[in-house]
Every structure is written in C-alpha cells, then in structure tokens.
C-alpha cells in the first residue's frame, strides 16, 4: 500500500494503530467503504462508524484523539487507494456465505424430514454426498 500524502476518504486503504489508556497498541488495517459494503471481518470499515468518521480527512503520520472504550488515540500509519477491489471482494465473500448457508439449510431440512418421516412412513435416507454434489451444479446452471 503506497502512503502518499492523501487524506482518508471513502475507498482509502488504511493502516492504523489503536492506542489504549495503558499505552497498549493494536494494529488494524482496513478499507473505508460505504455502509452497504461494510464487513469488518473482511477488512471493510463503514465510513459512518465513529472510527470511520474520526479518520476522514486525516493523513498518514497524524495521531488523532479517539476515545471509545479504553482507547485514547489513533495513529495513522499508511493511507492508500483501493475501493474497487474491496467492493468485489465483499460481494464475493457474501455470495459464498449465502451458498454455504443454503447448503446447510437444505441438509438440515432433509435430515428433519428423514427423522419425521422415518417414524411415520418408513425409512427415508438422506444422501448427504449427493446433496453436496448437486449444490454446485445448481449454482452453475443459475450463472
């Protein structure tokens, strides 16, 4: 990440240090994005969070006061550009999470049916391997 003397804005890739009251330091890197793209686990910080708002307009090398919890300040180490990659990464990660959730939901539904129908209408075996193989095929057909 290049650290030119650019102000932090939406799309900026930022590396900071969070400094607490006891002097402890935690490094954190993220891309500042709009609310609908935000996913901190993926390194995408909402520009409307208190931290996001505090950083906007500041530059690498600055230390700004920031009191949240036991934090006292934020040191801005690096600032670069990177919005396009962040948006694509976030969208793909969300799609993958939804795919996994759908597969798990389908498996649970079939297991519930097998449990209920086994006692009423006879045996019903869930073919987990077949279910897991069908999922990617359905996704390919949808694309």
Structure commentary:
The protein has 143 residues and is α+β, with helices and mostly antiparallel strands. Helix content is 41%, strand content 24%. It is built from 3 helices and 5 strands; from the N terminus they run βββαββαα. Strands 3-2-1-5-4 form a 5-stranded mixed sheet. A hairpin with a 5-residue loop joins strand 4 and strand 5. Helix 2 crosses helix 3.
- Total helical segments: 3
* Oligomeric form: single chain
Which series of helices and strands comes N to C? EEEHEEHH
Number of DSSP E strands: 5
Q: What is the overall pLDDT average?
A: 81
- Helix coverage percent: 40-55%
- The shape is elongated
Task: State Rg.
Answer: 23 Å
Largest sheet: 5 strands, mixed
**Low-pLDDT sequence parts:** none
Strand order of the largest sheet: 3-2-1-5-4
Strand content: 15-25%
Distance between the termini: 34 Å
Q: Pairing-aware structural class of the strands and helices?
A: alpha+beta
